[in-house]
Design brief:
- There is one protein chain.
- α3 crosses α5 and α7 runs parallel beside α12.
- The strands form 2 sheets. The chain has a 7-stranded parallel sheet. The chain has a 5-stranded mixed sheet with strand order 1-4-3-5-2, sandwiched between helices.
- By secondary structure, it is of the alpha/beta class.
Amino acid sequence: MEIISSRTNPVIKAAAALKEASERKKTGLFLIEGARLCFDAASNGVQVEKLFITERAAEKYSREFEAVKENALKSYFISEHIAEKLSDTKNSQQFFAVCRDTKGIPEIARDKMYVFCDNIQNPDNLGAIVRTAEALGAAGLIINSGCDIYSPKALRASMGALMRFPVIRTENGSGLLTALRRDGMEIYGSVVSPDAEKLTETEKKGSGVLVIGNEGNGISEEILSVCTRQITIPMKGKAESLNASAAATILIWEFMK
């Protein structure tokens, strides 16, 4: 393996730049950090373009290191001060990979249940929603806007689910939902409204799309107009709403149980 010891090395500068969303969008690449995430990427059809690791980390995480190295196009040993430049965490494992998603766009099965994120902005929320959707058995995630799914925070919060779970990205969310509705799928819009159906009383089918809205503004009018049903989580006390990921957990559980 080639050894890189300079923080100004162009390969390192290019990798560090991927911490910015604009660079990820321009190059189609993303940077992940941590032995578990890098291992998940290599094991789930994500192309590992470059592996960067310190010798200490390679020894500590030998199983993950060997698996990622085998799948990486190029591998480098780096010094600890370079690891600091690449890291986005306080306690880095000094294990990084530059990746390209080559899995393609999953097809939506009309007899399955999907979760639709409408302009979720917080990467921690997005990661938590994906992790929950995978754990509870949803078929996939649909995203039409919001934060970058390859944000380092979103990837960490998802515990690798964003690299395993089917994710459909679209620039025309209302058009896609209209087509799914035309094919007979129910589109459930989750709202905070006393006039909406209570989640506990809603007739639930084995297929459909569950729409989770933006943290501050909820579901956009454009997306809400396409929903076949509006549902709400009945709440007690003085709370007016729930965090987006907390609400999503309750909703997905009720639909998938």
